[in-house]
Prior knowledge:
The protein is α+β, with helices and mostly antiparallel strands. The chain has four domains: about 1-120, no CATH class; about 125-255, PH-domain like (Roll); about 265-390, PH-domain like; about 400-520, PH-domain like (Roll). Helices cover about 25% and strands about 45% of the residues. It contains seven helices and 36 strands. The strands form eight sheets. A six-stranded antiparallel β-sheet has the order 1-2-3-4-7-8, with no helix packed on it. It has a six-stranded antiparallel β-sheet with strand order 10-11-12-13-16-17. Strands 19-20-21-22-25-26 form a six-stranded antiparallel β-sheet. Strand 11 and strand 12 form a beta hairpin. The radius of gyration is 36 Å and the shape is elongated.
Amino acid sequence: METGRITFRQELKEVDDNLVRYTEVQIDSKGKENETVYNFSFADIDENTVRALTKNDAIVIQLLSNSKQKLIQVLTDGGDKISYVNELQFLATDSENGRQLENLIKGWIPSAIAQDKKRLALTGYSDHMKWLSENISDVQFPNKQIIQKTNIGAVVGQLVLDQTFNSKNKSNNELRELNLATLNPNSVGYRISGDEFIVTAETRRGLKGIRYVEDGIQKNYTNEVAFYANSIINGKDIYTVLKALIPLAEETFEKNQVDVSSNEKALDFLNGAIAEVTTGEVSLTQSLSNEDNVAQLELTEAEPNKSTTSVYRFNFGDINANNIDYDGQKNRLFVTLPTKKAVNFIRKTENGELQNYTKELQIHFSTIEDAIVGTKALKSLITHHETKMESDSYVYSSVPNAIADLKKLMQQVRVDDDSFDLFIELIDVNGNTVKVTSIFSNHKKSVGTIQEFSLNDINPKNCSIEVKGKHVQVVLNTKHLEKIIKTYVDGDIKPYQHNISIESTGIEEARQMIQIFAQLAANNSGKI
């Protein structure tokens, strides 16, 4: 076939596995030949785009791949140069030949699609996992080589992808440990650039749960995995199998999870999973306990030159279960526990020294599987303590008994060099009037504050816990914020106030104090 000064020679033949090869040779006026080879499958061609067109002085048959994906391999320079495109064109001898080719190709596409579907007769999780492991293989390029090995772990969905990249001047190794159940099936796609045909997948919500090791050194956790294909057919099959395998892995993993429905089972699992975690040169030792509504996480971080022990005390009922999830940051994998409304209700000490209260903490894990089950265990503990917190209300009997209970909670509070000595007494039985005394002292000064108020004037629905740095305070407000609280500082009368702040030794003590004050305010009949 001739067009202008160029003579074209074309050949189309079936190679194997539904793959066809189209060879186009251009011969110029001097007899020089330029060969281009296209490898593709008619199953990847969008039938609606197949049509005969007039292009300059030639009639061509246009073929575009589905969704314009680069699924057509192009070989030039005798096969030394490889690239991928999303379209190709056949040449027709005339308009009639063009219509014939158009109809012929449109007839081939449905049968090619049907043949594609028959090629992978896989059923269930095990079949898909086995196929993926056996068909991720080495890839040879003109100027480099990629050696790929996979290892199926003992846990459902667990996969290790080991890739070595060899070129003329260097070689490097990359290892990724992941669980297929954490991947998003909708993220599976092709990334085709130059001579590389890659199938990629990302984790759900972009969470960094894939452990990444480069040349034996652990690097930052990542959220993407990439499989290199050795051919178009291999790449398409990896895509198909991976997309089907991810939900199967998720379903099977869920069925085989450890039971963490009870508090005892949840804590047992967590302590077994978090006891020893190594991240690079840092070794983490963790333990989690829960007694009398107070949970405690002890974390020791041992580095080559130092060791730091942090202790967190909190109530699982204060943790926001809806925002709990695993994630990775740098070379650590963890589950973050944030408080509801981001309040600073978590007490922290570092090497025995009290730090500012915080709104979240992290529990570290060694594997993504442990992090997934650990998240479930933590949510179970939260649900239990939310229910317990709702049912644990103060049982009011009388004003004197309630005041006696407050006295047990209002004792000395020490924060660094500051000391608060607290006292409460009932000074008017008939009016339910109480006096709260707070003596603040440190090595520089001492200040005494006395506040007197009627319990009947306190708004039971406007009592709260406020945290400022290392200090926890109970704040009681009057009804309608009336300034009726008599206040003395070092014996001097001060302006009347609409609220009173009482220092507390901790969040749980403050919570109990609020319950008692709220009950006293609600039972304002004056009866004793």
